[in-house]
Amino acid sequence: MSENVVVTHALTKRYGRRTALSDCTVQVPAGRVVGLVGPNGAGKSTLLQLVCGLLEPTAGRLEVLGERPRSGSARVGFVAQDTPVYAGLTVEEHLAFGARLNPSWDDAVARRRIDDLGLDPTQRAGRLSGGQRAQLALTLAIAKRPDLLLLDEPVAALDPLARREFLQALMEFIADEGTSVVMSSHLVTDLERVCDFLIVLSRSKVKVTGEVEELLATHHRLTGARIDPAALGPGRQVVQARHTDVQSSLVVRSSAPIDDPAFRVDGIDLEDLVLAYMSEAGAGRVLERQP
Ligand SMILES: Nc1ncnc2c1ncn2[C@@H]1O[C@H](COP(=O)(O)OP(=O)(O)OP(=O)(O)O)[C@@H](O)[C@H]1O
């Protein structure tokens, strides 16, 4: 599949005078597992709620699966931040509820997952552990057989083992169905294991977006004698610059290889890349080619 599942152009959402998302332009290709990363208040939940049609944009354009998003679409599964389940309903009642609401509901998939997870169908959701509730919420979203699955910090409240199990279940589902997924998280190490596409949001703005492999191949850490980043030359975007009196450490984006003897050049991992874009200096200074 080559089409985009989410396309936004200058998408903006304001709550009164507070801007939650500003001028957001992204394209998410189909079949990807997208990591949506950013600090608290960056606008991640706002973007996900716009994509699933729970919020209306203040300005800009947004297309999801080729159409305007609408809340309750059978083609989009959404697991909100607090893994919402109904405390008073049993696991079984959740499945019955899901079946009634969703025309494409896959009851066999739902029951197999509940069984594999060892959840008691007669137990009320309010009595489940945080990890079990997250798994139940994921089961409900998966059994809809959505084309696009949106997960808002699904593992935030889980212990490391439950996180691993949750992500494992997610990976199995994606491998079977080829569903596109957008998942927000603060935990880059978790995203590193499952995501192949990245969106970094900070202070309501998109800082960087792209294929993880391509981003890792084009970002480098340069360490050497103190330098004015402006002296680096054209075509190199200084994402983060740190200096001591005598030394500079720069994270630089460059599609061409950097072989400057003045620097040691190392690759960076996804966590360093995300942190560089989230840092204050990550204003993304681009050193353009001089005319
Ligand atoms: N209903 C609302 N009314 C007013 N302001 C809001 C509302 N929802 C979110 N905001 C504000 O919009 C901004 C973005 O919030 P959002 O929840 O999208 O961030 P987030 O990246 O998901 O944060 P977190 O990681 O803490 O969940 C924040 O400044 C937040 O205070």
From TrEMBL:
The keyword Transport applies. InterPro entries: AAA+_ATPase (IPR003593), ABC_transporter-like_ATP-bd (IPR003439), ABC_Transporter_VariousFunc (IPR051782), P-loop_NTPase (IPR027417). Residues 6-228 form the ABC transporter domain. This is ABC transporter ATP-binding protein. It comes from the Bacteria. The keyword Hydrolase does not apply. GO terms for molecular function: ATP binding; ATP hydrolysis activity. Pfam families: ABC_tran. It comes from Paractinoplanes rishiriensis. Keywords: ATP-binding, Nucleotide-binding, Transport.
